[in-house]
Q: What sequence folds into this?
């Protein structure tokens, strides 16, 4: 399998800050991809430490379930100010399992169903401080579908945006970031598109 996903991100710290509390990870293995974004509470250095710690934990894992990954992050972040977190795991057949904790959003845009979008809403809680009873969601993507994750530094109105299916993930990420960014917070938008499926 090659090029299961193409992706791009646009991110920046809050105006006046040098450390970014919003971080992302796209970890590709031969038959699957782990996708994550984290938003450390607040902004500045302490927020950055929490978010980067979550990404480090996720990068060092090997095939655990999303629920197990959240618990690993929760334990690792107990000494930090905590973070919100959105995770997705997609297989070569384009099946997707996802899980969100805290004020963070995902959107799945269908390439075939006239651009229909599905909101991936998170549960309440803070990783490293208080977790809800964790539950995952599932869907199956199609080649050409687009997935967007965004922290709360991107105004929620971005969910009304209809991306051009022919635009690259970077063009879409840059447009959403420029149009919907809140300069009073760290901000991150991550755009992914399914390119192909595993053919053995």
A:
């Amino acid at each position: 399998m090659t090029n299961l996903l193409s992706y791009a991100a646009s991110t920046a710290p809050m105006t006046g800050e040098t450390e970014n509390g919003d971080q992302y990870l796209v970890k590709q293995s031969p038959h699957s991809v782990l996708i994550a974004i984290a938003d450390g509470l607040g902004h500045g250095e302490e927020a950055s430490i929490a978010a980067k710690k979550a990404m480090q934990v996720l990068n060092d894992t090997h095939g655990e379930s999303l629920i197990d990954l959240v618990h690993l992050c929760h334990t690792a972040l107990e000494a930090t100010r905590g973070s919100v977190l959105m995770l997705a795991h997609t297989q070569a057949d384009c099946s997707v399992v996802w899980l969100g904790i805290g004020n963070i959003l995902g959107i799945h845009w269908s390439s075939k169903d006239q651009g229909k979008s599905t909101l991936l809403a998170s549960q309440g809680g803070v990783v490293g401080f208080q977790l809800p009873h964790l539950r995952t969601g599932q869907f199956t993507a199609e080649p050409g579908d687009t997935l967007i994750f965004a922290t709360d530094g991107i105004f929620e109105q971005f969910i009304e945006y209809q991306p051009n299916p022919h635009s690259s993930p970077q063009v879409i990420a840059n447009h959403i970031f420029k149009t919907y960014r809140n300069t009073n917070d760290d901000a991150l938008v991550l755009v992914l598109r399914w390119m192909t499926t595993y053919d053995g």
Q: What stands out?
A: Residues 57 and 73 are 6 Å apart (CA to CA). The chain has one domain: 5-194.
